[in-house]
Design a protein that fits this description.
Order of helices and strands: HEEEHEEEH
Oligomer: single chain
Radius of gyration: 15 Å
CATH class: Alpha Beta
Shape: globular
CATH topology: Nucleoside Triphosphate Pyrophosphohydrolase
Structural class: alpha+beta
Number of domains: 1
CATH superfamily: Nucleoside Triphosphate Pyrophosphohydrolase
Helix content: 25-40%
Strand order of the largest sheet: 3-1-5-4
CATH architecture: Alpha-Beta Complex
Distance between the termini: 35 Å
Length: 161
Amino acid sequence: MATRLIHHAYRAAQYVRLLYWRVVRPDVYGAKVVVIGLDQTVLLIRHSYARSDMYMLPGGGVRRGEDVMAAAAREVWEETGIVVDALSLHGRFLDMAKGARNHISVFAAHASGGVPCADGREIIEAAWFSLDALPTNISSASLKRILEIRDGRLPDFDVWP
């Protein structure tokens, strides 16, 4: 029961955030990470709010005064319990689909493995997937970034997705 209440709270908070973004149209900054495991797997998550049916890259907001690379590593740790190393910037993207000017920095990183652990509140699932057998219910933006990094290609565009 408590978990269900927490999921509703996250959904409500997401609704308020998106409403604020539509009205105020702020500049916000975020980071996402394509985490590659030793066995050619990629780390994906599912949120408890906003498209909980879709797998996405781990990531989130950059705190005021926080270095974007540090934010990327922190978000992966907070969402999955996985420690990343060797982060490298893949690209910077702009997403204006939800009203805000969302500046998203995408990093490629490596992890020596480990079992991801979703917190059960914000993240309802975190798992490794083979780079050659990605789930069909993956967000288009996440899929694009994974394939670019897997295939050693530069980003197609600087617009998200």
